[in-house]
Amino acid sequence: MQPVISIQNLSKTYASGFQALKNINLDIRRGEIFALLGPNGAGKTTLISTICGIVRATSGTVHVDTHDIATDYRAARSLIGLVPQELTTDAFESVWATVSFSRGLFGKPANPAHIEKVLRALSLWDKRHNKLMTLSGGMKRRVLIAKALSHEPKILFLDEPTAGVDVELRRDMWHLVQSLRETGVTIILTTHYIEEAEEMADRIGIINRGEIILVQDKAELMRKLGSKQLSLQLAHPVDAVPGVLSDYGVTLANEGSELVFAYDAEIEPTTIAALLRDLDRAGIAVKDLKTTQSSLEDIFVSLVHTGN
């Protein structure tokens, strides 16, 4: 299937000489949720702004559903809804008026039923006649999302959409994201809440210092890079790791009351069973055991640190 967004050799250098993007190559699949992760200043917002035609690239191309964002801007941009980081709204307009106006900017005919559907989905219906200046920060964030959805885009960009919002709004927004994906909308998000990307995304892209350092299906990324740890709580503390376990790389913790075995996805399935048998043969009783797995945040921090 042809990607809905295709980015080739994209670079952006500002007049100051700062290179914000360096030879980006990236395809976004139609209908997926793609999470773009990276530290502050990594180039996430610049990349989104370039795809949306807000920032002009120094070199390279961006195609949105085959439309070149530079030479066929109007057609490409009409397919995109953008929720920016900044709360930029006309303070004296009503919620209904500003969302309806956004739809008109894309040449779409009036559709009160669609506007009502969007406002209800974002719990804004009761606020439709309120001026924006009277709304809380969380409600203004909802209005930005409503504006982005007003013209029924096929692609939705969410740039740090839940930064500084309350838990209820965050939950509502992710329910909305899931429902949009079910209708075929492609969603690209950046977020500092990595647990959201871990829960929601189909694929993960990591950008650092203007370069894409990894793009991977989330499940495959977790399988390849997610380390696991088996912790064995001993019935009686020991002074040292039993010699019979030396080949496993087991370490001692909690003043000799716990043995820790770290392993990855490539481990043979029989290895842990063999370790437990050897432990039993050494006469060491296990009181309890638990396993933990590294999170996407652990993987992200490791990759960014390595990239530095």
TrEMBL record:
Determine the domain of life of the protein's source: Bacteria
Arranged from A to Z, the UniProt key words for this protein are: ATP-binding, Cell inner membrane, Cell membrane, Membrane, Nucleotide-binding, Transport
Listed SUPFAM superfamilies: P-loop containing nucleoside triphosphate hydrolases
> Is the keyword Oxidoreductase in the record?
no
Please verify whether the record's keywords include Transcription regulation: no
Spell out the Pfam families in the cross-references.
Answer: ABC_tran (PF00005)
Any one GO MF term held by the record is:
ATP binding
The family database entries (InterPro entries) matched by this protein are listed as:
AAA+_ATPase, ABC_transporter-like_ATP-bd, ABC_transporter-like_CS, ABC_transporter_ATP-binding, P-loop_NTPase
Report the CDD domains cross-referenced here.
ABC_DR_subfamily_A
> Where does the ABC transporter domain start and stop, copy by copy?
5-234
What is the protein named? Multidrug ABC transporter ATP-binding protein
Q: Which organism is it from?
A: Pandoraea terrae
